[in-house]
């Protein structure tokens, strides 16, 4: 009998209190940036691929509206390990996108190359079967609820091996935010 793994109840972000920051969130941080910050301009700090997934290194990560500490804080993540996608680099700053599509800037040292994923954050109630092997007919060892945060150890052939507290198995890669479709991740 498969057991189910539910998401730990935590707040993904603290919304800002300042009205100006709230307006920025409502209008979308993803709006046009000054030309100096446009994709492909400015100082590229790494030669790593863009976009790419990483995870939050700290339990408190401020996301800013621009790439410096002089810019307002748009929101704050309050859970380490959450996956985010780096979509742009400017010096020591990384423009990230979360599972909801919200974008902002984070200082590079607050991010980790450790691969994590959220199970179906776009769904409210459907559980995702965790399989013993990377096959759709393999035994179900658990069912994971939406928003379960998991560590990704490998992905191949449309399946990812994931684990967390009390579970280890394979998930359909399309059920995860934190990996690209058909992305290969080697153990």
UniProtKB/TrEMBL annotation:
<dbReference type="InterPro" id="IPR010466">
    <property type="entry name" value="DUF1058"/>
</dbReference>
<dbReference type="Pfam" id="PF06347">
    <property type="entry name" value="SH3_4"/>
</dbReference>
<protein>
    <submittedName>
        <fullName>Aspartyl-trna synthetase</fullName>
    </submittedName>
</protein>
């Amino acid at each position: 009998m498969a057991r189910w793994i539910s998401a730990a109840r935590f707040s993904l972000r603290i919304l800002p209190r300042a009205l100006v920051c709230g307006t920025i969130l409502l209008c979308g941080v993803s709006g046009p940036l000054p030309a100096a910050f446009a994709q492909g301009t400015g100082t590229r700090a790494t030669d790593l691929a863009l976009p790419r997934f990483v995870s939050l290194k700290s339990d408190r990560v401020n996301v800013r509206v621009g790439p410096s500490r002089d810019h307002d804080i748009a929101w704050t993540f309050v859970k380490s390990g959450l996956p985010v996608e780096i979509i742009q680099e400017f010096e020591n700053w990384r423009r990230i996108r979360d599972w909801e599509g919200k974008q902002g800037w984070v200082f590079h040292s607050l991010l980790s190359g450790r691969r994590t994923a959220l199970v179906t954050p776009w769904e409210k109630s459907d559980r995702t079967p965790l399989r013993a092997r990377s096959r759709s007919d393999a035994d179900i060892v658990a069912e994971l609820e939406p928003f379960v945060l998991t560590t990704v150890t490998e992905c191949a052939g449309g399946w990812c091996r994931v684990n967390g507290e009390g579970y280890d198995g394979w998930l359909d890669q399309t059920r995860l935010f934190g990996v690209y479709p058909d992305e290969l991740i080697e153990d």
